[in-house]
């Protein structure tokens, strides 16, 4: 089933125009070059008309040579202008890529997590691949549409000088183009988006097979991987056929129209010539202009396919960019003095639900003083991880009150708060990059001595330094070649290096082997410069905590 087909041609056109507007300077160059090119190209039929005139007049003079040179020069200039247009279009393509890359990199960490709760984010980000279609499509549109439109306009103006009948030709031409677009574009756009939806579903499914490749190795005989692929491919092919039918319809109308107009124009031209209302030179010139105009109309109609592709690409790319992001407007400016190293947290009547009516946290209240060590426990699914996520400021839509040093959490700028919080999520993953990047997360204030100190503490130092490139060694994507404990050690070391005010810990790190687990526990318990809130069932750890929040009992209270 397609994921979104309710895009109207109007809103898609608006987005396309907004994008073109961002490049208005470059686009105006393209139009300028196209207009010049259009004028110069007209020199061809006019020149030929004059040459025929001279030949028929039997004049073989210098003016004939000048005219020939004039026509050749016109063709050459038109070519040069086209090259200039191509340069501008290349610049636009490069800018589109750079703009979208940064828009994605900037936006993704800011996405409101609840808004993508139903998505697998890396899959959603596949939409970035539509950048290539947008670059190609837009540059084609920017080159073809202005050139074709201007040629049609100039051609029609010139024809109307030969005979008023050609004005009628112009009006019919314009009307046909508009009617074709008006009648077919909603279906064209809808089927194009549907086709693209299926394309992404197929890609997602292939990625899923690859991600769970070990599982699928064992289930090949059942053919699930092929059955689902077959279903999605059938959907794609149906949508594509529907889209192709729209394009074919447009093309058929165009061919019928071209045949009629060519016949009509030849007959009208011949009649005008026979009646001596135009001369032979004018007849040839008019036919050249008509053929040129018709081929420009053809270009316009064929460009419709590109228009659909571009509109679809914009919709797809927007799927990530238009997701709600962390709110910024209501935030107050907080100074360093307001946010000292250790934080005091006060939670009153906190409730949270992922879906309306399904409370995960219900009326929870507690207070944590700076530097306190708090254990969180509770039955499976009682909301322990959710509580950490809410406290980390990842979900803004909670009810009740969370005060940080007396300041409501919703008034704290998200980035500022998150720079004070470190979170160990058991399912958090490493990213493709060096050990150094995975440990420091790009924080240039962290020096090598702190990194080594923490790595010694968690038992990573020897492991990393025995690698050929030490801390600059590249981790494989998702850290799959690392042992589970190595991943846990990197994640806990990352949290410690952040020197947080509040350290939120899911369980998992407690699987780290002795003596490192004991060293980590000592650090967490003895260092009072930061508060710890840890999900744990470990009696030893719980015994040493200042406070225990039991969600299975607290919430029912
Ligand atoms: N992103 C999410 N979207 C919707 N529901 C969610 C989401 N994350 C968790 N839940 C649901 O919220 C409830 C609480 O989940 P949470 O992971 O916070 O519990 P937990 O106490 O940490 O559980 P566990 O001990 O099994 O890890 C569960 O019913 C879970 O299915």
Layout of helices and strands, plus pairs?
Elements: H1 9-22, H2 24-56, H3 62-107, H4 121-124, H5 130-162, H6 165-211, H7 213-218, H8 224-274, H9 280-321, E1 345-353, E2 359-368, E3 373-377, H10 384-391, E4 399-404, E5 407-408, H11 414-420, E6 421-424, E7 433-434, H12 435-440, H13 448-458, H14 461-465, E8 474-475, H15 484-497, E9 502-505, H16 516-526, E10 531-535, H17 539-544, E11 547-550, H18 551-554
The site of adenosine-5'-triphosphate (ATP) has 11 residues, from helix 10.
Give the domain tally: 2
Question: What summary fits the major beta sheet?
Answer: 5 strands, parallel
| CA gyration radius, whole angstroms | 34 Å
Number of helices: 18
Structure summary:
It is a multi-pass membrane protein. This protein has a five-stranded parallel sheet with strand order 6-9-10-3-11, with helices on both faces. A four-stranded antiparallel sheet has the order 2-1-4-5, with helices on one face. The chain has a two-stranded antiparallel ribbon with strand order 7-8. The longest helix is centred in the middle third of the chain and has 51 residues, at 224-274.
Structural description of this entry:
This protein is α/β, with parallel strands linked by helices. 62% of the residues lie in helices and 10% in strands. It has two domains: 21-320, ABC transporter type 1, transmembrane domain (ABC transporter transmembrane region fold, Up-down Bundle), CATH 1.20.1560; 345-554, P-loop containing nucleotide triphosphate hydrolases (Rossmann fold, 3-Layer(aba) Sandwich), CATH 3.40.50.300. It has helices at 9-22, 24-56, 62-107, 121-124, 130-162, 165-211, 213-218, 224-274, 280-321, 384-391, 414-420, 435-440, 448-458, 461-465, 484-497, 516-526, 539-544, 551-554; strands spanning 345-353, 359-368, 373-377, 399-404, 407-408, 421-424, 433-434, 474-475, 502-505, 531-535, 547-550. The strands form three sheets. The protein has a five-stranded parallel β-sheet with strand order 6-9-10-3-11, sandwiched between helices. α5 (130-162) packs antiparallel against α9 (280-321) and α6 (165-211) runs parallel beside α9. The longest helix is centred in the middle third of the chain and has 51 residues, at 224-274. It is elongated, with a radius of gyration of 34 Å. It starts with 8 loop residues before the first helix and ends with a helix. The mean pLDDT is 84. Adenosine-5'-triphosphate is lined by residues 117, 354, 360, 378, 380-386. It is found in: Cell membrane. Residues 345-557 form the ABC transporter domain.
